[in-house]
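Milestone 3.1: sequence recovery, worked example.
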């Protein structure tokens, strides 16, 4: 098992280092030249280093399970090709990390998906998440700038103990939990903390979205959104339990997902939408144990007064409330 892990890790290095030219043959690393010995313990911590410079990447998949810590340190610019035909698996994501423990991504470098050029050259969907997380726990996303065509960070089911701190999002669709509810097998989402984040010209700020008329009965609980700055962001705070893109569901059947234990504190800045905060909770499972403290938002448009939309929610309020919150 350990040999397979090491091969997977070195495969990533191979792709990053040698897939610069489309016609170049795939390089092969002999792991014995890097310290591996037959029958020896190779479970010590591993580090992949991408040095300064521009490195073209077709596609990479880092997969476990692993016994030792793994660090991917990116100091340079890892850049995708503008032609999506360069992806060996066009149905897969550009970079995928699965089934690993104690993984660290660091280095202050840049992952450049080259979307602007790719969209012009290919019939591509611009809605691509910057970072998608699911079925994971004890994850920290810190000190990052994310610019993308969809969610800066999206969370699927089974997420727990996620901390997002000191992240700048925009352009993009904000930081989202969901959409959730389409599959009865989906697992609870718990202990999500978003703090000291800035949203610049985003479609949303922080968002929770669940499907109505769907079979899932999971819980979304213990959500903490604190010290958030909005810069002309649409929908700074939104809980949408009637999420139904392209009318693919029955809105008359409410969501069966319980959203609870929400803390919203110190949200300030400007919004481009008149309805600054939306709490559209389920009629069958109203949002419960919600606290909103110190909200100070200014509407940058001219269509009237800034407002809050509330349905099936009775929060506890404290401090400044601009716009007035649900009562």
């Amino acid at each position: 098992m350990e040999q397979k892990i090491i091969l997977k890790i070195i495969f990533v290095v191979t792709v990053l280092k040698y897939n610069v030219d489309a016609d170049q043959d795939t390089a092969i690393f002999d792991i014995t030249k890097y310290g591996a010995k037959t029958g020896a313990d190779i479970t010590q911590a591993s580090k992949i280093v991408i040095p300064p410079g521009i490195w073209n990447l077709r596609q990479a998949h880092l997969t476990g399970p692993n016994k030792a810590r793994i660090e991917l340190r990116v100091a340079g610019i890892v850049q995708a090709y503008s032609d999506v035909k360069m992806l060996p698996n066009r149905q897969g994501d550009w970079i995928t990390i699965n089934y690993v423990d104690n993984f660290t991504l660091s280095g202050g470098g840049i992952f450049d998906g080259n979307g602007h050029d790719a969209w012009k050259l290919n019939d591509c969907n611009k809605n691509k998440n910057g970072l998608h997380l699911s079925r994971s726990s004890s994850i920290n996303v810190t000190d990052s700038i994310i610019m993308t065509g969809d969610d800066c960070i999206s969370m699927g089911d089974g997420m727990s103990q996620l901390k997002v701190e000191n992240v700048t999002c925009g352009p993009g669709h904000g930081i989202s939990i969901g959409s959730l509810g389409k599959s009865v097998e989906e697992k609870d989402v718990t202990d999500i903390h978003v703090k000291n984040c800035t949203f610049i010209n985003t479609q949303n700020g922080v968002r929770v979205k669940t499907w109505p008329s769907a079979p899932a009965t999971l819980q979304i609980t213990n959500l903490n959104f604190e010290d958030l700055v909005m810069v002309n962001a649409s929908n700074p705070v939104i809980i949408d339990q009637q999420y139904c893109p392209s009318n693919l569901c029955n809105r008359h059947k409410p969501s069966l997902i319980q959203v609870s234990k929400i803390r919203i504190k110190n949200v300030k800045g400007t919004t481009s939408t008149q309805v600054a905060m939306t709490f559209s909770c389920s009629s069958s499972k109203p949002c419960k144990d919600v606290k909103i403290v110190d909200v100070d938002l200014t509407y940058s448009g001219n269509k009237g007064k800034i407002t809050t939309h509330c349905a099936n929610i009775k929060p506890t309020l404290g401090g400044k409330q601009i716009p007035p919150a649900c009562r």
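Residues 1-27 have pLDDT under 50 and may be disordered. The radius of gyration is 22 Å.
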